[in-house]
Amino acid sequence: MSEASTTTTGAAVSAAAPYSGPPDYRVVGRHAALPAPSHDETARFNFLTHANRHLAQRVLPGVRTAFETRVEPRHRAETQRDFSDRHEVRRALLKDPAFQVWSALRRNTMESRQQAGRSMVLRQSEALSRAVGALVADDPRLELDPSLPMPRYVAAIDHHCMPGSYYTERFPSDVGAAANYDAGLFITTGGALGRYTDGAGWGLVQWMRDREPDFRPRRILDIGCGLGHNVLPIAMAFPDAEVVGVDVAAPMLRYGLARAKSLGVSNVRFVQGNAESMPQFADGSFDWIQSTMFLHETSYPALRAIFRENYRLLAPGGLVLHAEQPQYTSEMPLYEQALRDWDAFYNNEPFWTRLHEISLDEYLIAAGFAADQLVHGDVAAIVDPEKIPEASGATSEDYGRRAAWHITGARKPRAKERTP
User: What is the pLDDT of residues 281-329, one digit of tens each?
Assistant: First the structure.
């Protein structure tokens, strides 16, 4: 048979091209806490996953073309100058129909993701609570503090259009917020983080192995750990270490421990606490402190407090590493900065734009770290192509590029390394 086959009408038809879309939601890695989708819910999740990929790969390039051929020339004609900053670019894009369509559809896919996830979780919320409760009951690796005040930057915002954000409990021992978040991550990343949406965690592990091959941390702290999808790979990669995940949201912590136990990870515990102040931990008690896509959901005062607490808790010779989307620099085009800002204005991430314009290095130095001990690097998701082959070359929702983060951190020198 040649590459072209023939239909009954005699018309030539090209051989089917290899599938290059996102993976099917049915390949999601199952664990005891994950909600089970029905046939129709799976179809809806697949539709939304394809919609996100289509927006990133097919629709967004048209926005760039519109910017280069209409928006930017019109601005130059009207002002006789180039754009001055990303905010001016964003305001100009808002007037263009190409951006309007892309932005509206992207917002709609996020709202639809939450609706799809919540409807799936609500119909089985009590069963999920019982399943998680059975796994975590009387387990000392779950430490909750019902009296912990919720920070305003969490309590006042429905992050990612998620009603009630991460922390809301509709009844005692509810894990619905975590279950919804876990199920929906596959949609917004197009499966590019793997079956268990833990590709970022494995990317951090690989980065550490490449950069610090002799590093043998005894105690590791993950702040803003959420449901544990990024910290579990770290715990698995360092089985002799004691790993602690801290978060303010009890549903996430319950769910995280259930997830860990059902996946056979036994060296991690989940503690309810505020990363700004963690008096339950002694000075210098961790060799590695890290976060993944957490800082952009805080605030200026919180960031200063978090870095000071990082310095206090970090042992001499230890590393603190924070993975976020890249900071805005003069080398990053204003158009790209404006697109990255979309999450701040339309995805309920208000601190996003502010975090990415400041110097995290300066904040680390103000917290006590030395300028010559700062650490930088880039991290990409690590996904097993044998388990989820479509994701090995997949692009994420991040404007058509592979999921990638920038690490900003520092090493705390040992006493003999300190400058007199």
Answer: 999 999 999 999 999 999 999 999 999 999 999 999 999 999 999 999 9
> What pLDDT, on a 0 to 100 scale, did the predictor assign at position 373?
97
CB 260 within 8 A of CB 232: yes
Please state, in angstroms and rounded to a whole number, the distance separating the CA atoms of residues 135 and 258.
Answer: 6
Beta-strand relationship, 12-14 and 4-6 = antiparallel
- Give the C-alpha separation, 378 to 203, whole Å: 10
Pick the range with the lowest mean pLDDT from 34-43, 71-80, 408-417. Answer: 408-417
Give me the CATH code for the 23-420 domain, please: 3.40.50.150
Burial label for 361, CB within 10 Å (0-12, 13-18, 19+), is middle
Q: Give the model confidence (pLDDT) of 321-333 as tens digits.
A: 999 999 999 999 9
Going from the C-alpha of 379 to that of each of 33, 174, 187, 205, 323, the distances in angstroms are 28, 34, 21, 10, 8
pLDDT digits (tens, 9 = 90+) for 173-219: 999 999 999 999 988 888 888 889 999 999 999 999 999 999 999 99
| Secondary structure of 394-413 in HEC code, one letter for each residue | CCCCCCCCCCEEEEEEEECC
